[in-house]
Amino acid sequence: MKKAASYTAVFAVGFVACGVALKTLGDPSSLLPGTDSKAKQAVLASLNTTPAPMHRAAGDSVVADAAAKLEPAIVDIHTKGRAVRQAASPFSNDPLLQRFFGGQGGPPQVTEGAGSGVIISPDGYIMTNDHVIKNTATVKVTVGQGDSSKEYTARVVGTDPYTDIAVVKINTDGRRLAFAQLGNSDDVRVGDWAIAVGNPLNIGTTVTLGIISAKDRKDLQAEGSHLAGSRIQTDAAINPGNSGGALADINGRVIGINEAIYSPTGSYVGIGFAIPINDARKVAEQLIQSGKVVRPYLGISYGPLKAIDDLNARREYGLPLSSDDGVVVRAISPNSPASAAGLLPGDLILEADGQKIATTDSLNDLIQKKSVGQTLTLSITRKGQPRTVRVTLRERPAAYGQAPSADQGPQQQPDQGQQPDSGNPFQQLIP
Fold this sequence. Notes:
9 helices; Pdz3 Domain; single chain; alpha+beta; 21% helix; Thrombin, subunit H; elongated; seven-stranded antiparallel beta sheet; 2 domains
């Protein structure tokens, strides 16, 4: 009993001593060895202090400066296509089979897409790709990001499938928009920094960095079509949804409009292509002025002589057996300038206006440098005999070179080179 009482007395004395210590010393952590209460309070105070803005010297991040300059001029574009009713069932005329298989077709389907655009004027003109807004019923444009963003309904000003450039316009109600500074794509050098800005995979405006990998890439194919003219190649990451966005230099000036990637998988592999801004600007100016591009045409489809490796075929048309120079006329469009000038399938075109024709694009480049009504002088051979043919160029019809409908069967694309093979890994950046 006495032993229990002594235990109780010791416990009581200890309890009282702890209370006195807490009252005297305050924070129990001050009792821990090596702990300085004032230092701890200073640390806590520093955590609640708003840090001073980071000091950046001028030019210490040229990429960030360029991105900040360009981002406000890049927009997200969302489209909806026209509703298309699904095909009727083959059993639509049999009442009994309709009970099991249906017969009226499904409800109308509306396709949706997303891409990018570049504001090129403060009153709301926006440049993008033709394939971004092609066959759409509505085009919505989002300017800005996050809480400050605003969506507009855009009007299509004009499109040019040939160069894959289009211009849309939004009504800003007098609000002046930030717009991109357009650079000079002729000054671009291989190895220069390249900044891609757009809306990849519809996640919002994104900036990526790379270099100019090559210039003047030609004879490219994408989504079953020939990419007319030359392209800038870059390894800056671009993906579906970047179409119509900007490829810029290190100063934030737009040098190209992103258009296509080369990819066996459908995703970014480091090879992307942009339309040079000097070409895109000329097209945009015409679209804004008149809603269309007036372009001369010759009216032929053709391919390189070197693609014909069958010597018997060469003999049949009197083509050279030991040379691969020039392009061979494959077909002549009816009522075209080429038809009126007397060109025939099998003619070998060696020169145009005194310039040698080395590739399928080189002839078309010369045509596009001419104006409607001007004459193009062709040096050709027919069945091995040299001739000179003078063609007066006319305005390219609106539907010229469009893909035929299914019941028309295959046809060559006029004023273009060879068509793509199946399994072609080039693809435009369509989500």
